[in-house]
Amino acid sequence: MVDEQKMLLNVKNLKQYFPIKGGILGRTVNYVKAVDDVSFTVYEGETVSIVGESGCGKSTTGRAILRLDEPTSGNVEFDGADLLSLNKKEMNRMRKHLQIIFQDPYASINPRHTVRQILTEAMEIQNVWPKEKRDEKVIELLETVGLGAHQADRFPHEFSGGQRQRIGIARALSVNPKLIIADEAVSALDVSIQAQVLNLLKKLQRELNLTYLFISHDLGVVRHISDRIIVMYLGKIVEIADKKSLFENPKHPYTKALLSAIPSTDVDNKKERILLKGDVPSPIDPPKGCRFHTRCPFATELCRTEVPELRSSSDTTSDHQVACHHAEAIESGSLQPVVSS
């Protein structure tokens, strides 16, 4: 990471536990440990992506940062402000700088409002534009996201899925945010429409100096838009690297398995698919030690007892970090996978 870049978001030891109630009195009997001690940074103007299987905690991380779900513990510093220490009124004022694009573009916008109402409502709540200029701004936003002025008084059901997601993007832009969290923002769209929306997001980033935290399970999409990538597994970060390093030199066995699943059109250079054994363990009772050890072919007794720290391995830069006890041994071939009988 370039030293001159400003750190916009700094997440430290973030935890999000959801209580499980039981018994006649409805007491808390256990917790779903959706996000467990997650730390990372996002710099101004970059796109950081969080990837992993369903249930790994990536979307919950985004919601916790925005306090859509109140985090259990940790620190979230945004542009110098401690978000978790803000009261409700202060947090509401801060929200104009932090916006989210949801996965389902129809469920996230009011079906009874026209596009004009949807966009001006956000402006009114945050008081970002004078009343007399809001209609003009609506037209400008629609044109910015590839829609037309004649569509301002239409309702959401009159648009396609891709168009509705553009409305969602326009709503996020309507309050001049610094950071946009895109939570599976293209996963519900057709492949051709995905490419259009991703190109739009990149164009907006260049023109408006936006910063993205992009959440996705699709590594192909992530490769197209990311500067740095965070890989999560069962509530923990297992690897952080810039895009080039992660795709060319993955260190964690889980990351390697994810990358091996990406379809390839190169018939002369077929990748060997790495199939993981078993299912993802329950976040209610995660495995001790490394959470991936129950599915990892390289797991040792150390992996079963001690939690690996996120660190730079000996053959990578400090920006490439991995949470694996045996990353170097696996890379050198001195540790071989255990073959199941």
The computed structural class is alpha/beta
Please give the radius of gyration in angstroms. 22 Å
Strand residues, percent: 15-25%
Rounded mean pLDDT score: 90
Spatial sequence of strands, sheet with the most strands: 6-7-8-3-9-10-12-11
Number of strands: 12
Helical content band: 25-40%
Number of H/I helices = 11
The SSE string, one letter per element, is EEEHEEHEHHHEHEHEEHHHEEH
Distance between the termini: 45 Å
Principal-axes shape call: globular
The major β-sheet equals: 8 strands, mixed
The poorly predicted ranges are: none
Compact overview of the structure:
It is built from eleven helices and twelve strands.
Record the SSE blueprint:
Layout (H helix, E strand, L loop, with lengths): L6 E16 L4 E17 L3 E5 L6 H9 L6 E6 L2 E2 L5 H7 L3 E4 L13 H12 L4 H14 L16 H13 L5 E5 L7 H18 L2 E5 L3 H7 L2 E6 L2 E7 H6 L4 H8 L40 H5 L5 E2 L8 E2 L4 H6 L9
Parallel strand pairs: 3-8, 3-9, 6-7, 7-8
Antiparallel strand pairs: 1-2, 1-4, 4-5, 9-10, 10-12, 11-12
Helix pairs in contact: 3-4, 3-5
